[in-house]
Sequence to fold (341 residues):
Amino acid sequence: MVSGALVLCLGLAVWQWSRLYPYAALILPLDAAPAKAIPELVLEAKIPLGAVKGRIDHMAFDPGRKRLFVAELGNNTVAVADIQNNRLETRLAGFDEPQGIGFAAQSDIVFIANGGSGTVEMRRGTDLSLIKKIELGEDADNIRTDEQGAVYVGYGGGAIAVLDPATGGILKTFTLAAHPESFQIDSATSRIFINEPKALRIAVIGLRSGEETARWGASGAASNFPMALDAEGQRLFVAYRLPALLTAFDTRTGELIARDATCGDADDIFYDKARKRVYVICGDGSLAVLDASSKQPRQLSRLATRSGARTGLYAPEVDLLFVAAPQRGTAQAEILVYRPR
Fold:
C-alpha cells in the first residue's frame, strides 16, 4: 500500500506540481532559512520592470549591446533591459505566453517562443522589428543555440525543432517521448540531453541520428525541469522538484554521481565554469550556490530572493547572474543583478 501511494503521488506531482508543492513542502526535509546576504554573490543592482502581471519566464543576453531579454509570460510581453545603465530600455507587446528566448549572435536575430500560439518570432537585433513568425506547434518553450549558431526550440507533446539562424527554416526535428523542458547541447559528443518530466526521464539523443541512445534518471525523484552542462568536466546537473534535489550525472556513462537536497521549485540552473560553481534558482524564494570543483557538489550558501523568483540567467560575458523577481504585493517586478565573487 505504501509503495502504491508513493507511485500515485509521484505521478500526480508531474501533472499537478503547482497545486501539490505547498503541501509536499510540509513533509519534505527543509534546510535552514536562506540568508539575506552571502559571500559568493553581491547584489550589484536592481533593474525595475514595473507593474508586470504574472509569471516571468526565461531570458537571453545580447553581449554586444549589453541587453537582457526577459520573457514576461503572464504579461504577454518581452522586456528589453539595458544592463549598463540598469534600466528598462523598451517593452515588446503582442505575444501569446512568451516562454523561451534565444539570441543568435551570428545572424543578429532574437528568437522568441510563444507557448500559447505555438509560434516562434524572429526579430532583428538592430531595431527589434519583426522578421517572421514560424509555426511550430503548441507550447513552444525553451530555446538554445549551438556552437554553429543553429537554434533549437522545444515544443508540443514531445519535439525539438532545429532552425536556421538566418532564415528560420526548419532544418531538422527530433521526436521525443514527452514535452521537453530544459535541454543542453553537447557539441563535442554530438548529443543533446533533454529533461522529459512527464516521461520521468532524461533523454539522450544523438544529434546526427536523431535516435534516443540512453535514458537516465534518479530513483524516487520526479519533476526534473532545469539542467546545466559542464562539458569539460563531463557532468550534467539536473534539479528535481519532488523532492527538491540537485543531481549530477557522468555524461560518459550516465551514472548518477551526486544527489543532494536543494531549494524548492527550481526552474533554472547555471554552471559557472570559471569558478566551478552551480547556481540553482528556485521559486521558493531562494537561490542555492554550490561548489562543484569536486565530483560531489557541496552547497556553499542559500540566498533569499523573492517568492516566485524561479528563473534567471548567468551571462559569463559580463560575469553577472540575473534573477527575475515577479511582482508580489506592493513590490513591483524587477531583475536582481548579482556579481559573483
Residues 17-30 have pLDDT under 50 and may be disordered.
